[in-house]
Amino acid sequence: MSTDKAPGKRQRSAGEGADRLQAVTQPVRNIPTYDLLDQASLDRLHDVSLMILDEVGIVFLQDEAKRILKEHGARIDGDTVTFAPELVMEYMEKAPGQFTQLARNPDHSAIIGGDHVCFAPVYGPPFVYDAQHGRRRATLADFDNFVKLAYLSPHIHHSGGTIVEPNDCPEETRHLDMLFSHIRHSDKAFMGSVTSAENAADSVAMAEILFGKDEIRQEPALLSLINVSSPRQLDDRMLGALTVYARARQAVIITPFILSGAMAPVSIAGTIAQQNAEALAGLAYAQMVEPGTPVVYGSFLTNVDLKSGAPVFGSPESQLGILASAQLARRYNLPFRSGGMFASAKVTDAQAAYESVMTMLPAIQAGTHFILHAAGWLENGLTAGYEKFALDCEVLGMLERQIQGLGDLSDEEMALDSIREVPPGGHHLGTPHTMKRFRDAFYRAELFDYLDFDMWQAEGSQSAVDHAQAYIENALTDYEPPELEPEVERALLDFITTRKRELIPG
């Protein structure tokens, strides 16, 4: 995206938002979770999931994984693996209920689980979109831009992974460029590559250079996304990466990619049961590889439009899936991943906003710990939107405030003195209580407009997209990278150079 200032648009000052950089704080949940299911319904979903694992099974398309599973008591029939219910639960109990992922700035290390909430950017789109240039294939420059924007946002707590696919980099080596971008342009925690076992091993090696080999075995430096190919299949690429990460005690998110009506039954209950079986299989396998491996129970569940076959995001069925899946994760005492600013919309418009909030609100209500795709998602995940990213971050700020709850009910919060002071028909605008707190009493979205109509018109009748575009241009122009020790940077670059020569000889 161009960093040239857009003519005729109100520009935000270069320092605006700079002070936020030091205020990146992972929010702690202080509101209750919403339980969709009663205990009998939760037990029913759990029991049916174990029946699927025991009687139908999951396909594991890797010989090493099948050997490990057999050694730990699973039944193997060709590529199909079945699990006795007690075996599944034995290994589920070995997984930690919470862990901390290292960041090179210790203040930005991410706590995954408990009452903490972690927002991470969109993951995986091959295209990008901005209002000035439209839709186009993503490049490494776009990838760098999104890492920088995530670093600058106080409401993004994790740098993410493949924020976009840099199509101008060779496929064999682009994982190295993406990992280095996360390390060089941000000091927040980041995700590893999962496209092969070899790429996962490269991710571990770079994390060892950055943090130390022993250090990352004590607390993970990588959190990586392992997708189950629904229905009921883990392929060799995912299993290869999962095995590498588990052996190195790096955290993994086991997430079935499941679309009700296509890769699962049209009934949401059946879809949830299948998803739970798939997730449990991957989670148990990780513990068989290395007991105590940090894991996250992941859910990426929505439905298809049965007329077109296209995925539908923000549907009421997907909201029910999030709420029920979160309860299952809590049953197993595991951190939960779901949600995101999902939208089928192609541009940053009202549809994009409505669909995104329809998915994020149940994710917040469900008590989700790690929310991937929390900013930037467009076009069913095919596109990362620049303006969408900035506006999503504003909504994340609002959700952070909601997560904090009402707060204490102290005398200061109840403001009785101020209530006594202001007469009927008066106002609280100038009371000591207001003057003491007015700077931070309420969350204020910097990219939303609160002017009256005449002032808004005098300012150029700008939309939220206009404000977002101006913010992005200024943010990328004024960006300054966090400090990285020169010897660490040299070691990383030497490793990358060597691996590129090995992967693309000549």
Structural summary, described in words:
By secondary structure, this protein is of the alpha/beta class. The chain has a domain at 21-31 and 92-403: TIM Barrel (Alpha-Beta Barrel). The protein has helices at 39-56, 63-71, 85-92, 140-152, 174-185, 197-211, 213-218, 236-247, 268-289, 316-331, 350-365, 386-403, 411-414, 416-421, 432-437, 453-458, 464-478, 486-503; strands at residues 58-60, 75-77, 80-82, 98-101, 110-113, 118-119, 127-130, 134-137, 223-229, 233-234, 251-260, 295-298, 300-304, 311-312, 336-337, 370-371, 377-378, 383-385. α1 crosses α9 (268-289) and α10 runs parallel beside α11. The two termini are 32 Å apart. 47% of the residues are buried. Mean pLDDT is 93; it is low at 2-22.
Please report the distance between the alpha carbons of the first and last residues.
Answer: 32 Å
Instruction: Return the CATH class of the domain at 21-31 and 92-403.
Output: Alpha Beta
Mean of the pLDDT scores?
A: 93
Radius of gyration (CA) equals 24 Å
Largest sheet: 6 strands, mixed
The unreliable regions are 2-22
- Label the structural class: alpha/beta
- Secondary structure: helix percent: 40-55%
Counting H and I runs of at least 4 residues, what is the number of helices?
A: 18
Task: Write down how many β-strands occur, each being a DSSP E stretch of 2 or more residues.
Answer: 18
Q: How much of the polypeptide forms β-strand, as a percent range?
A: 5-15%
CATH superfamily of the domain at 21-31 and 92-403: Trimethylamine methyltransferase-like
- From the spread of the alpha carbons, the general shape counts as globular
CATH architecture of the domain at 21-31 and 92-403: Alpha-Beta Barrel
- What is the name of the CATH topology of the domain at 21-31 and 92-403? TIM Barrel
